[in-house]
Specification:
Blueprint: E1 14-17, H1 23-33, H2 45-50, E2 56-63, E3 66-79, E4 85-96, H3 105-116, E5 119-124, H4 127-135, E6 139-149, H5 162-176, E7 186-189, H6 199-206, E8 213-214, H7 217-225, E9 233-239, E10 242-251, E11 256-264, H8 269-279, E12 284-290, H9 292-300, E13 304-315, H10 322-325, E14 332-333
Parallel strand pairs: 4-5, 11-12
Antiparallel strand pairs: 1-2, 2-3, 3-4, 3-8, 5-13, 6-12, 6-13, 7-9, 9-10, 10-11, 12-14
Length: 341
């Protein structure tokens, strides 16, 4: 690929995808350019990223034979809600070595991604970060929201955002702790059922109203069971012995559960969420979701939903994919994006 023209007279970088022979240089680059306690330098993290069943590529920029910058591209399949599917890639750990900055290398790495995938997707984790992507031609496809529910009176309120927790508890008790017509469901925790979900739940997700990432049981096993340093669990919602849905989460301090993913049959999203809220043994249930439709689904289940201040941004070079990018129907759970990796 020919990268965008640099504003300096420095030699243009050679952009390509890394091969197995590049991995020692990639590891050395991560060790040199990221803090020692960062996740990029945790044992097993790079190997885990590269083992994704959807495929992970490492885009590298070489200058005179030296690794000057890189970006991990995490491949996804996106449900276009009735108009087919498209491939995409999230970028994570994009970094340019200090000696090679201000040469357009970071921009060139993102352009390489857009050339090879239908959608280039990124998380704008701050206003400044989002502005960088916007200068590269990205646009906001979904706003992140934080969802919070305190189904039980806590033994203490967190020092930060204590008012949100108090309001969440009051909202739940007054408006949603139980509704007439709520189904008599029960909760069964892992490890007995693990993360393997019925195939029809993947099809329901792929045929739903939101533009969600399409996954598989192989992906769930990799993403949650094989994670090198985070521990995840699954809570299954059952109607008798029939599975209705599953919520994937991890336990934080002080009885909080962080929800990262969920699956259910057609039309079972409200029942799955509300039953999980009533039955999960947690003081607080929280997480992050992107997209208006999913935010509304969590609010209907009894969660308080607050702006999070970050976005999913996207870009496509394909004219046939431009309209879905801007239609506001996208939805992401934390486990769908690079935000929880």
């Amino acid at each position: 690929m020919t990268p965008p023209t640099s504003k300096t007279n420095d030699p243009a970088p050679l952009l390509r995808f890394a091969t197995a022979s590049d991995l020692p240089a990639v590891r050395a680059f991560l060790a040199e350019n990221f803090p020692p306690d960062s996740h990029q330098n945790r044992p097993g993290w790079l190997e885990w990223q590269l083992a994704s069943p959807l495929g992970t590529q490492v885009a590298v920029a070489m200058v005179d034979g030296e690794l000057a910058g890189l970006s991990l591209l995490l491949r996804v399949r996106v449900n276009l809600a009735g108009v087919g599917e498209a491939d995409g890639a999230f970028a994570t750990s994009t970094m340019v070595s200090t000696r090679f900055r201000r040469r357009g290398i970071g921009s060139a790495l993102h352009h390489l991604r857009a050339e090879h995938y239908g959608y280039a997707l990124s998380t704008g984790q701050s206003a400044a970060n989002s502005q960088v992507y916007e200068r590269l031609g990205f646009s906001t496809v979904a706003e992140f929201s934080e969802f919070l529910l305190s189904p039980r009176w806590p033994r203490f309120f967190p020092r930060k955002r204590w008012l949100r927790h108090l309001l969440s508890w009051g909202h739940w008790r007054l408006k949603r702790a139980a509704k007439p017509g709520d189904r008599a469901l029960r909760l069964e925790s892992s490890p007995g059922r693990g993360f393997a979900v019925p195939d029809e739940w993947f099809r329901a997700r792929a045929g739903g109203a939101f533009r969600l990432c399409i996954t598989s049981n192989a992906y769930l096993e990799w993403r949650y069971a094989d994670h090198p340093y985070l521990e995840y669990a699954s809570s299954w919602i059952l109607d008798g012995e029939r599975p209705v849905g599953v919520v994937i989460h991890r336990a934080l301090a002080n009885g909080e559960l962080r929800v990262v993913d969920l699956y259910c049959g057609p039309g079972d999203l409200p029942a799955t969420l509300s039953a999980f809220c009533r039955l999960a043994p947690a003081t607080h249930i929280a997480g992050v979701v992107a997209g208006k439709g999913l935010s509304e689904a969590f609010a209907e289940a009894g969660f308080q939903v607050f702006p999070h201040g970050s976005q999913i941004l996207g870009k496509t070079l394909r004219p046939d994919l431009e309209a879905p990018l801007a239609d506001g129907r996208w939805g992401f759970l934390a486990g769908d994006s690079d935000k929880d990796r």
